[in-house]
Amino acid sequence: MKTFDQLSVIGLREWINLPDLGMVGLRAKIDTGASTSTLHASDIQPFERDGVGWVRFTAHFGTVVQRRHRCEAPLVTVKTIKSSNGHTQSRYVIRTLLMLGDRQWPVEFTLACRKTMRYRVLLGSKALVTGQLVVNPALTYVQDKPQLPSASGAQ
Description:
With 155 residues, the protein is mainly β. The protein is built from one helix and ten strands; from the N terminus they run E-E-E-E-E-E-E-E-E-H-E. The longest helix is centred in the C-terminal third of the chain and has 6 residues, at 125-130. It comes from Aquipseudomonas ullengensis. This is ATP-dependent zinc protease. GO terms for molecular function: peptidase activity.
């Protein structure tokens, strides 16, 4: 059996922060079947700032108490996503800093309505590769909650 010492182990679910968006304490579901990560968002509005494409949106997080947070981020691209049932959808893509355990790195997220889903954030395989992570699906919340000063503007 091969081992990979440089890779950190995470569970099927982990606590994350998105500090550039001012969001802390998000529960993320790890989805190795998805290439790109996804963040639950509504009221998505593209706009320009200094000739650069940006997107403004309301991010939703929390399970027992639903919280909303208004965010702005540079627009990376618009991507066509094909779901497991074959349905295609165009989604805005942003890149933002992700904190998981004691690591942080930039991750691309598509913005999509996930209100009927249990987890508001999915971490896809590209984020796992970049973060040099391996998943043990028998475990959950392996890494400590990332520490950050409390987020301002969360409701």
